[in-house]
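Let us work through a complete example step by step.
Step 1: write down the sequence.
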Amino acid sequence: MLLDHFDQLLRQRWCTVFPQERTFVRAEAVLVGLLTAYGRRTVSQALCAEGRAQVDWTADYRAFSRSPWQADELFVGVLATALTHLPGDGFIAALMDDTSIRKRSRVIKAARWLRDPLSPPFHVNFKYGLRCLHLALALPLYQAGHGARAISIDFELAPSAKKPGRRATAAEVEAYHRVKDAMSLPMKGVEALATLRTRLDTLGAARRQLLGVVDGGYTNRRVLRHLPDRVDLLGRTRKDIALVTPAPPGGRRIYGGRLPTPEAIRADPDRPYQSVVCHYGGDWRTVRYKELTNVLWPTAGGRRRLRLLVLAPTPYRGPGRAGRMLYHDPAYLITTDLESSAQALIQAYLDRWQIEVLHRDLKSGLGLGQAQVWSDESVPRLHPAIVASFAMLTLAALETYGPSRASTFPALPLWRRRKPQRRPSQADLITLLRNDLAIHGPLRPAQQPRSDTPPNAPGWALSPRETYAFT
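Step 2: predict the structure and record it as tokens.
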């Protein structure tokens, strides 16, 4: 059963993170309640879903606000489990991106006014919330006929430096400019990659190269010139960057002649395309590309040798009867990896989209950010713990049922049986977990209600009628 393997995996990987076993039991019960609760995913709703609406609740909140444990240590266990599902050779691709969580409380010190990515291009909107940095591993499930699946291996708050007001002193303004660059997203991304490199060395993957796969927001000077040892970068860039060739050896010059822009290289008929087969969009497809090796990007990379990959547009029809054409724009990639094959690098870039799918599952499906916590200790602990618990649930389902959607999963609705999905969705995993809890009860034993509880007070608990596929 999924619940048994999920609980066993959490006890094996997370029990040593907490100072006491009873603290682990409380935190595990709250996290499972946040995964399976209906409605808004708040801590109080999670306690009600566990049937503890009439008992003392303070210890469950204090497990996140007072107990001495670190949320980033949870991802060490997630990473150790995820590494067992990766192939034993080649680089390890870490997908990196930032996301934001809406908040309303002005008491949260890490909350800032952020640019809303859903605002229209002709009018920039702002929202109040938390800015987070997210890293994930792409598990290759191509042999089973599926695309890659992203597993979160790091999730941390990355607030920007708070700008001083008009009445700030000169010392406060100087301190702001001193920490502004260090708290920027590119530098936070470099620190996250360095931390991940250290964890991989500890877990026995010191000989494998780490490849950070990013979008255009991280393909810049701050990241390229501060990459840690044994860490490469693969990112999307603009079509008009200025690239040059290295100067001939023997002289004092560093940069040679000017190269055409990536857009000019793509449009040049004298440079033929090469072809590789990659998995994206639910099938194996032929991708055409052009490649330039040993190039220099003076404004961003300095003296570091780079590699340019220009991908041709490869349109394909999206799902549905009237599916529109997708992936009809070219892509321009810059990487510091000069040795790996072009097919492996292009496949890693195509798999980067899975972290966007993971963001949708976490925020729309699991209600990440809806938990109403505000203390300085709870905010940086609870949200990463929710992300880590869903990663563990995904790994537990992968080890229990495999990558495909087995017969154990609930039957699809009638309107979706014309084209059944191949891999279990986030809703499928949550439904199985709810069904297991409805059969076997909560993870921790029931507690006596408080003395001031009125007789026959109703408590909220999962019932078979609340699950759409209970059998």
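Step 3: interpret the result. The chain has 13 helices and 14 strands.
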